[in-house]
Amino acid sequence: MSEGIAIITSGGDAAGMNPAVKCAAEYAAKHGLKPWLVYGGLNGLIQDKIVEADRLLVSGILHRGGTVLRSSRSKEFFEYSFREQAYQNLKKRGITKLLVIGGDGSFRALHQFYTDFGMPFAGIPATIDNDIAGTDYCLGVDTALNMIRESIDSIRDTATSFSRAFVIEVMGRHCGYLAMVSALASGAEICLTPEIPYNLDSIGARMKHQIENEGRDFILAIVAEGTKMGDYVTRWINDSIGMEARLTVLGHVQRGGSPTVYDRIMAYKFSVAAVESLISGQENAIMVYRKGAFGHLPISEVCDNKYEMDPSIVRLCKPLSE
Amino acid sequence: MSEGIAIITSGGDAAGMNPAVKCAAEYAAKHGLKPWLVYGGLNGLIQDKIVEADRLLVSGILHRGGTVLRSSRSKEFFEYSFREQAYQNLKKRGITKLLVIGGDGSFRALHQFYTDFGMPFAGIPATIDNDIAGTDYCLGVDTALNMIRESIDSIRDTATSFSRAFVIEVMGRHCGYLAMVSALASGAEICLTPEIPYNLDSIGARMKHQIENEGRDFILAIVAEGTKMGDYVTRWINDSIGMEARLTVLGHVQRGGSPTVYDRIMAYKFSVAAVESLISGQENAIMVYRKGAFGHLPISEVCDNKYEMDPSIVRLCKPLSE
Amino acid sequence: MSEGIAIITSGGDAAGMNPAVKCAAEYAAKHGLKPWLVYGGLNGLIQDKIVEADRLLVSGILHRGGTVLRSSRSKEFFEYSFREQAYQNLKKRGITKLLVIGGDGSFRALHQFYTDFGMPFAGIPATIDNDIAGTDYCLGVDTALNMIRESIDSIRDTATSFSRAFVIEVMGRHCGYLAMVSALASGAEICLTPEIPYNLDSIGARMKHQIENEGRDFILAIVAEGTKMGDYVTRWINDSIGMEARLTVLGHVQRGGSPTVYDRIMAYKFSVAAVESLISGQENAIMVYRKGAFGHLPISEVCDNKYEMDPSIVRLCKPLSE
Amino acid sequence: MSEGIAIITSGGDAAGMNPAVKCAAEYAAKHGLKPWLVYGGLNGLIQDKIVEADRLLVSGILHRGGTVLRSSRSKEFFEYSFREQAYQNLKKRGITKLLVIGGDGSFRALHQFYTDFGMPFAGIPATIDNDIAGTDYCLGVDTALNMIRESIDSIRDTATSFSRAFVIEVMGRHCGYLAMVSALASGAEICLTPEIPYNLDSIGARMKHQIENEGRDFILAIVAEGTKMGDYVTRWINDSIGMEARLTVLGHVQRGGSPTVYDRIMAYKFSVAAVESLISGQENAIMVYRKGAFGHLPISEVCDNKYEMDPSIVRLCKPLSE
C-alpha cells in the first residue's frame, strides 16, 4: 500500500481552493502518494469524513468558487482526545502526510497535531485578506479583487449618472490590502485603511477643490472593514462635502466567484510546491510566494510575524488618504 | 427647420436608458424629427443643457450602464417660474415634443408641464423596481435581476462551503418583484416581500425539518428592502434555526451593469413606440408592455393606479414564504 | 407506489435545461408523482440509466450551463427493438409519463414512442436557435444571446481601438433570430440572415457614405451561420469598402454559460406547465409561450409547421440588410 | 511653460492601455511635466492629433478595454520626412519626452526617432502575446487570459453535456504562453504550442486509455494559433480517437474586455516606473517586470533578444503535450 496524503481545506473559504485540491491530488498520485480528501475541514478529520480522491471527485471542480471539500471552524480540534481520534482515522488508512489549504489558524492547529503525533503537514496560504506573513500572495486574493472590481464598476454607472458619492466597504478586518488595491483599480478618490493614517480635513478640502474647480460630480470612497468608518464617512461626505452619499457593504459577494486564471495558476504552483516539500521530507513548511518565486518557510516565521503591506501599493495609495 | 424632439432621462437611473436614448434619437431623425439631448434630467431643461443629438453623442453608449444623459431629482421643476424657463429653452430651439425615460414621478412632472404650456410628451417606464402600473415590464429590471443573480451565485459558493445561512436584501421599497424573481432564480429557501404574507414559525419548522431529515446544510433567504426584515431575519436564523447567518445588503450594485440583451431590445421597442406615438399625435401617452405586446396608456391610468404583481410569480414564490 | 414521471433532456444542449429539470422534479413530487431522472438522453432510456430524483441530484444545478443529465443523439431509438427495451426500463419502475426538454426531433421521437406503447409525454421547447414553431420562446435563447453580447462587446473594444471591421458569425442554421437580435443589441451596422434579403451594393454605399461623411471608423457586421457568408463578407469589406476586416466565428461559446434569470424563470414556468399538463391528462402536448402567456399545442402543430420570425424584430433589423 | 510629455499607444491593442494612459498623465502632471495625449498611434504624431491631457479626457477610461487613444500600424513613420513632421508637431508644443505603450515594433520605431532627433522615450510593454524579451509580464495578458477562461468555461458546459471533444485555438503566432496558461487554467487534456514538442501518438494512447478505463467522456484541447494545428487536430480526434470533435477559434474576443485588477495595477506600476525613468534622465529605457520587481532595460536587450517562456509553466504543461 502506498503512503497516503490527506488534503484539507480549512478556515474561511477562498477561490482557488478547488484547483489546489485537484492539482495536489493529481500531482501526489503521479509521484507515488495515494491522495485522500477530507470533507468538512478539521471536523472532517475527527468525524472520519475521509475519502479516496478518485478522478470523478476532483473532476469538474477547477472552475468552481469556494471549496467543494467544505470548510469549518473546529472547536473540538483544540482538545487532545478529538485530535487523537483524527489521528486514528488517518492512521488506519495509511495516511502519513497532510496538506492543508487555509489560514494561519489552520497551520497552528496542524502544528499542534504534529507535536502530538508526529504527522507532518505542508501549508498553502489561502485567504482573501492577503494578511499571512512571509508570502506576497495568498490564494483567493485575485478573485476577490476582481469580484470587488465588478461591483464597483457597476456602482460607478450609478454614481456618474446621478452626481452622487458612493462609499464602498470591502473586507479586511486587520488588513487594508483589498481596500487599497481596489481603490487604485477603480480610480477611487478616497481610501481609508488601518495601515495608512488618514486626514478627513485634507481629504475634504481636496474634494471641495475638485468639485468647485474641476467639475468633479461624483466620488468613490473605498473603506476597509477594519476601520469601522463606513457609516461615519458616508454621513461626513453628506454633511461636510455636501454631496449625497450612499454606503454599500460588499459582504460575502467578495468571497465567491469562479477562480480567476491567476488564482488557478497559483493554486497549481502552490500545490506542486507543497507536495514536493512533503516528498522531500520537509516537515510543517508553509509555502510562500515572494519576489516572483515560490519557496517555503518554517511555520514559526509565518505564524509569529505580522504581515507587511506591499510598500509600492502603500505609496500609490497614500494620496487617497490625504 | 424640422420640428424638434427632446430626449430626457429622469428619476433613478436604470440600465437600458442609454440604448433607449440612442434608438429614440436615431428613429426620430429617420422620421423627420430633429432629436435633442437634455443633460441632467429635468434640471437640465431649466439650466438649458440641451444639445443637438449628433451621431458621436449617441455612439458607443449602447452597452453602458446608467445614463450618459445623467439624471437628477429636481425640486425647482415644481415651481412655475422654473418650468417656464425650461419652456423657453425648448421653444427657442424649435422643440415641440418631449420623450422622457423614467418613473411615474417624472411622468407627473411632465404632465404638469403639458398643462402649463401644451407641450406633449411620451413616457418610457424605466425603474429597476418594476412597480409602474399598467405595464408588465419596466426598462432596467432584467439587468438588475442578472446583477443580483451574479451576486447570489457568488454568495452561494461561500454558503455551500461553510454550512451557513445567507440573508440577502435586494432593492424594492414597495414592491417585492426583484426579491421574488431573485429567490426563484437562485433557488432560495426563504423569500420575504411586502406582497406575500409570511410566517416565520412555519418557515422555521420547514427549515429544521430539512436540516434534520434531508441533510440541508445551508440556507439562502432573499428579503425585499421594503420589509425591513433583513437584520431581524438574520438574527432569527441564528437563534431559532441555529445556523450561523450573515446579512448582505446588495445596495447600488443592483443598479449598474451593462444592459442585458433583453433590456437593449426592450429599449429599442419602447423607443420606437414612443417616437411613433408622438408622430401620430398622441399626447402624454405612457408606453406599456402587456401580454407580450406594446401599447400605450393615458398617464392617468399609469399614475393613479397601483402596480399589480404578476400572479404566476406570486404563486411560484408563495411556498418560500410559508 | 406512486406513479412515476421520467425527466429527459434531449438534442442540442441549452442553458435553462438544468433549472427545468430541478423544478420539474420538485413540482412533480409535490403533486403526487414520483420523479425520475434519465441520464444521457434517449440513449439513457435504452441503456437503463434511470435514477430516482432525490434532493441531492437536483441540488446545486440551477445555475449551471448545459445539462447535468447529459444529452445525446440516439440512432438506436429509431429502431423498435431498442424502444421496446426503453419501455421495459420505464415500466419496471412504474414510470407512466415522460417529460422531455429538447427540440422538435426529440418530440417526434417520443411521439413515435407513444404510438408504440401508449406512454404520454409533455415537451418543453429548448434550443438556442429559437426556431420551434408555435412558441415565441425556446429555453436557452436568452442566455445564448447574452453570451454573444459579451463576446461582441469585447470585440467592439478592439474595433474602436483600431479602425477595423469585424464580421461575427453567430449560430443559426436555418434561422436568423440570434443574428438579428444580436445585431440590434450590439448596434451593428450590417446584419445578414436567411430571412431578410440583403443587398451588398446598397450596404456598401451606406458604409462608404458614413465613412466619408460621418467619421465612421469601424464596422460591426453580424452574420447568421446559415447564410454561409462569413468569409465572403469579410473579404468584401476589405476589398470593396476598403476597411481591414476580420472574421470571428463564435462557435460553441454561445451554447454555454450560467443560465440568465430569464431562462431560469422560463424554465420554472415551462416545467410547471408541463407537469400540470401531464397531471391533467393531456397527452403529447408541447408547452408554448405566446403573447406573454403559457399554453400548449398538439405536437402536430409544432412539428409540422415552420417557425415564423417575430415581425417586430424583422422590421427593426431590415435597415441593417439594406 | 513646463516640459511636455506625450503619451502614445501603439501596435495591437491590449487591455490595460487605458489605465496606463490615465496614470501616466496624472503622475506626470504631479511631478512637473505637462502631459499630452496622442490620438491614433504613430500616425497621430504625424497628423498632429496631439491634445492636452485634461482631467475629462482621462476620466472614466480606467475600466474600458482597448485604447481610447486608438492605435494604428504606421507605414509613414518609416520615412524620415514624416518623422520630421512628427518632430515638429511635438517641438512646437514644448514636448520633449515620449511615453509609448505597445510592443517591440513600436519601441524600435521610437528608437529610430530618437536617433533622428534626440527625443528620448520610455516604453511600457503591452501585448496579449506576452512575447517581449526581458520582462515576465506584458500589459493585457491577464485580461486576455481571463477572457479565454470565460469562453472555455462556457464551452465546457456543452462538452460535458454531450460527450464531445472541443478544440480551442487561442492567439499567439510565435508564442504559446496564452495556450499553455489557458490549458492549465481550464484543466485541458491536450495542449499544442510552438515551444513544446508534442506527440499525437502518445496523446492518442493516453486519451484512449482514459476513455476506456477511467470513464472519460469529453476532451478539451487547447491549440496555439502559431501551430496551425487547429483543423488537423480536430479531424484527428474525430478519426483516430473516435470522439466527435469541434473547433472553436476564439479570435478577437480575446483582445477586449474590461481590464482585470491585475492589469490595472500593473498599468499603474509600469506607468509610474516609466515617468520616473524619464524624469531621472533615462533615455529609451523599456520598463520590465522580473521576479516580482520593476526595472528597466536598454532597448537593445529587449528588441534583440527572444522571449523565453516561463520554465515552471512549461514544466506543468509538458504532460499535456505527451
UniProtKB/TrEMBL annotation, chains A, B, C, D:
Residues 5-277 form the Phosphofructokinase domain. It comes from the Bacteria. Its EC number is 2.7.1.11. It is found in: Cytoplasm. The keyword tRNA processing does not apply. It is an enzyme of class 2 (transferase). Pfam families: PFK. Pathway: Carbohydrate degradation; glycolysis; D-glyceraldehyde 3-phosphate and glycerone phosphate from D-glucose: step 3/4. Its cofactor is Mg(2+). It catalyses: beta-D-fructose 6-phosphate + ATP = beta-D-fructose 1,6-bisphosphate + ADP + H(+). Keywords: Allosteric enzyme, ATP-binding, Cytoplasm, Glycolysis, Kinase, Magnesium, Metal-binding, Nucleotide-binding, Transferase. Belongs to the phosphofructokinase type A (PFKA) family. This is 6-phosphofructokinase. It comes from Haloferula chungangensis.
